[in-house]
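seq:
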Amino acid sequence: MSEQQTFDVGGHTDGHGTRLKGKAALVTGAGSAGNFLGTGAATALLLAAQGATVGILDIDAGRAEHTRKRIEADGGQAVALTADITDEAAVHATVDEFTERAGRLDAVVNNAGISGEGDISRTSRAGWDQVFALNVTAAMQVARAAYPHLVRSGGGSVVNISSIAALRGFGSGAYGASKGALQALTTDLAYTWGPDQIRVNCLVPGHLHTPIGDHGGQEGRRLRGAANLLGAEGTAWDLAWAVLFLTCPESRWITGTMIPVDAGTTTATVLGMLPRISEARRKDSDEQQ
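struct:
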């Protein structure tokens, strides 16, 4: 059993509290299918554990309902919502529905995303458009639909989830380009909506052990853990805690930022990390013998 499957709400610590009591937050891509949670589901669970009414927005109704049941079993409040967020009309209808049911809207987490076809030389135009439609345009549509509700609540927080693929070459093609565009969108919205007391920030996660990043088996996990300054692989909970901070009043004077949640991955050079990666590979080889 993986360590993620043994975690309670909030990861390795008790995530319950009242920091978001009376607030409402919408999280895209927050559905789940089991105990191995992605960043959206972990974020939804943590925000609910801190008192928020959480809208779980996912294209898959079954996955959205699974996360809702888990939140309510933990004592939280949640609403399962199903929509294709690349459909602008569906986005507006769904955001309006959640706000009406929750009574307000204070935070939006643009978490939904897809990785695409990788290497740009092998990426089809249709694949490129699909990635940008979800990773950038849909995030813009959700934020724009939420805007009047955030204003009526007296301001709020929008948190966009990017990736270190926007900062470093991975051969990720449309994925990295779309995440870079999301960072630019973050800066512009922070400028435009600042007078309305709406803060817009972007988290830049590194190598996390989540369903979308679970590849390469145990060797892949060891290498991902070695490829950062702390020598440990991140989890969905590490990102969720950062989201919580940016949705809480404690971060009221932070906007327009790109905050890496990557254990220092993007601060190191390739040459500097090679010895650590080589050691991780040696240990993995020794264990297999």
